[in-house]
């Protein structure tokens, strides 16, 4: 059994933003928020439903050949914060982009393959916390020619009048980003990576809020881990901070140090339909030390065509006793904290179980279940790992 403390959601802290590299990993916000548990719960349901609808139809086809050049140490890192005070249900990191560097908030997304930044000139731009980015003011920007291997790697591409590659990424929730496809310099704290392929989005519509762009962490060949994989031995981890801890941050580390001694691993599976996602084998779930008989391995099995399966995807003072829930993966048993499977619905001590049915055979281990775990992605070893209390 676990003890779950019921805490009121704190008011968002007030900070000021700067374009210089942050001296610490503190949260930058654009407005004061006072979010009730009821409103937070409604936002979570909306976010999760739209996220699931976006994931199901994706079929990846990208084939990239270029790799970014890097300077500095073998491994590198960045900070992670929860974006609620930016008006978002996503987790953000802060990176330097361009020459000279402009530090921007980027959404972390393990379910996509194209890195992109919203920039001027804007045909349609959503609200973001950082000033708009100007590609004309960076010396390291280089447009990718039409017909090049990188341009041909995109699922949807075209050409402008200057024969520069145009990218477009559409999501089934109606969101879309469209603009120039280019290479640019990214800075992760003190490590610089050059020639990273990314999109400069001039038309960005839909559910994007707060962040300036998206750092793709998927398995596809245009994602950031694949592009820069040789630089950090194709290993990285992140730890998603508790959503109620607005002022706290954690780290994302690329390199061999991403693997800790307490990490338990399960093999990564290959899905012919969803090469973007990190697919794993879930064998069952136990509650309070007893396996739930109705939850059998067949419910999560992926067939030879790639249908079904499970993916890992990066949206008062009363105390109660709750049973421990364990996810039984192939080779790894992961015990969840109470905050990984119970969501406060109101201020009276009502909670909702943080699992829901899906409209297809695909199951998703989302960022609520990953919260406060160190999740290690080891593509070199074809495995994914979990270490408890990794954000400390």
UniProtKB/TrEMBL annotation:
The keyword Hydrolase applies. The active site is at 109, 313. Keywords: Hydrolase, Protease. Residues 1-23 are annotated as: Disordered. GO terms for biological process: proteolysis. SUPFAM superfamilies: Acid proteases (SSF50630). GO terms for molecular function: aspartic-type endopeptidase activity. InterPro entries: Aspartic_peptidase_A1, PEPTIDASE_A1, Peptidase_aspartic_dom_sf, Plant_Aspart_Prot_A1, TAXi_C, TAXi_N. Residues 91-392 form the Peptidase A1 domain. Pfam families: TAXi_C (PF14541), TAXi_N (PF14543). PANTHER family: OS07G0603500 PROTEIN-RELATED, PROTEIN ASPARTIC PROTEASE IN GUARD CELL 1-LIKE. Belongs to the peptidase A1 family. This is Peptidase A1 domain-containing protein. It comes from Gossypium armourianum.
């Amino acid at each position: 059994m676990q003890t779950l403390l019921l805490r009121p959601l704190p008011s968002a802290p007030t900070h000021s933003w700067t374009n210089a590299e942050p001296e610490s990993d503190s949260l930058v916000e654009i407005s004061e928020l006072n979010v009730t548990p009821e409103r937070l719960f409604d936002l979570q349901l909306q976010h999760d439903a739209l996220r699931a609808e976006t994931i199901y139809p994706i079929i990846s086809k990208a084939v990239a050949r270029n790799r970014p050049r890097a300077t500095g140490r073998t491994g590198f890192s960045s900070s992670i914060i929860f974006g609620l005070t930016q008006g978002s249900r996503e987790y953000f990191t802060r990176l330097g982009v361009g020459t000279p560097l402009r530090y921007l908030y980027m959404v972390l997304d393990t379910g996509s393959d194209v890195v992109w930044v919203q920039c001027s000139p804007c045909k349609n731009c959503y609200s973001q916390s950082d000033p708009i980015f100007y590609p004309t003011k960076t010396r390291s920007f280089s447009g990718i020619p039409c017909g090049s291997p990188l341009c041909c790697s995109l699922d949807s591409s075209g050409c402008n009048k200057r024969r520069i590659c145009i990218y477009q990424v559409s999501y089934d929730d109606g969101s879309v980003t469209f603009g120039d496809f280019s290479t640019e310099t990214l800075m992760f704290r003190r490590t610089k990576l050059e020639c990273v392929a990314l999109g400069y989005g001039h038309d960005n519509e839909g559910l994007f809020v707060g962040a300036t762009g998206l750092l793709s962490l998927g398995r596809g060949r245009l994602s950031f881990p694949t592009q820069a994989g040789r630089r950090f031995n194709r290993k990285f981890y992140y730890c998603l901070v508790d959503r109620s801890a607005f002022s706290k941050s954690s780290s994302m580390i690329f390199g061999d140090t991403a693997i800790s001694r307490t990490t338990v691993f399960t093999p990564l599976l290959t899905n012919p339909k969803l090469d973007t996602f990190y697919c794993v084998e879930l064998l069952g779930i136990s509650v309070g030390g007893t396996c739930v008989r109705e939850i059998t391995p067949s419910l999560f099995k992926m067939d030879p065509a790639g249908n079904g399966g499970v993916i890992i995807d990066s949206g008062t003072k009363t105390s109660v006793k709750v049973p421990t829930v364990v996810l039984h993966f192939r080779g790894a048993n992961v015990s969840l904290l109470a905050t990984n499977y119970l969501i406060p619905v109101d201020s009276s001590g009502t909670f909702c179980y943080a699992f829901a049915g899906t409209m297809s055979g695909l199951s998703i281990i989302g960022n609520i279940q990953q919260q406060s775990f160190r999740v290690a992605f080891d593509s070199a070893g074809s495995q994914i790992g979990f270490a408890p209390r990794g954000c400390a």
